[in-house]
Amino acid sequence: MPTTAPAHSLSDVTASDSTLRRFLHGLPGVDAVGLEARAASLGTRSIKTTAKAYAIDLAISMVDLTTLEGADTPGKVRALGAKAVHPDPTDRTTPMTAAVCVYPDMVTVAKEAVAGSDVKVASVATAFPAGRTALDVKLADVREAVAAGADEIDMVIDRGAFLAGRYLKVYDEITAVKEACGGARLKVIFETGELSTYDNIRRASWLGMLAGADFIKTSTGKVAVNATPANTLLMLEAVRDFRAQTGVQVGVKPAGGIRTSKDAIKFLVLVNETAGEDWLDNHWFRFGASSLLNDLLMQRQKLATGRYSGPDYVTVD
């Protein structure tokens, strides 16, 4: 299945809407059957006990522990931050999660909750999850989160503009948001479940990377179809090929629907077999999740003690 981008220079592909369109539509078409078959095949790999223990700890360290509900309160965010820093208070060898992810108005609370730790604070912005508002409002949303102390910004693209073929508009919005981020890392969310085709997901991946994304992210977790092995595999191929062509490494974040340790390990196999070991680190790969951490903790204790914990072992998110 061909995945390599056209060999010409990328320096001028964003000069105009026509050059950007020509580049994106010149990317190799996706063999959907082949993509899904490879994702399914990699998902059947067996993992030995020692490798499983390593994979579970690695997955814990890659979780963006997330709460994005209208009913979020400071107390809930503080509890989330405490859990991110000490996922299992009875076992301090448990890794911290990578980040907590909250709305901009909760960033200050989250920063206080994880103070003194290596846990990052990520904030969704740009009128999450729909992304349907004016650019100046989106930029104000980003600046508010960054001013409050966000280490990372998760933005959503304008899917309507993308699907209408207005690629330069989407590119310009991403670059403007990237500038507004200052020193914060930028994750660009495509909402893959709304992009309809694998070809569109490949185009969105390259568009996001060309515009300066530090991460490309599958989903908001707010639609019916979120992260899948196939769409994540496709995005991993894109970051691999982008680095091969430009020397720039970009992270990947599948989000939504990843709930079990078994699922998480399948995704880690995809990373290792597609992008390679360089991406097996939370600087380059994340899970956007809320309930996943609980199952990882349960499985971690099972490996350590030989038995599953009772229902009160983990907190309910």
UniProtKB/TrEMBL annotation:
Pathway linked to the protein: Carbohydrate degradation; 2-deoxy-D-ribose 1-phosphate degradation; D-glyceraldehyde 3-phosphate and acetaldehyde from 2-deoxy-alpha-D-ribose 1-phosphate: step 2/2
GO biological process: carbohydrate catabolic process; deoxyribonucleotide catabolic process
Reactions catalysed: 2-deoxy-D-ribose 5-phosphate = D-glyceraldehyde 3-phosphate + acetaldehyde
Keyword terms: Lyase, Schiff base
EC numbers on record: 4.1.2.4
Domain of life of the organism encoding this protein: Bacteria
Keyword Iron: no
Enzyme class, broadest EC rank: lyase
GO cellular component terms, semicolon-separated: cytoplasm
Pfam family, one: DeoC
SUPFAM superfamilies documented for this protein: Aldolase (SSF51569)
Cross-referenced InterPro entries: Aldolase_TIM, DeoC, DeoC/FbaB/LacD_aldolase
Sample GO molecular function, one term: deoxyribose-phosphate aldolase activity
PANTHER family attached to this UniProt entry: DEOXYRIBOSE-PHOSPHATE ALDOLASE
Assigned protein family: Belongs to the DeoC/FbaB aldolase family. DeoC type 2 subfamily.
Protein name as it appears in the record: Deoxyribose-phosphate aldolase
Organism expressing this protein natively: Streptomyces brasiliensis
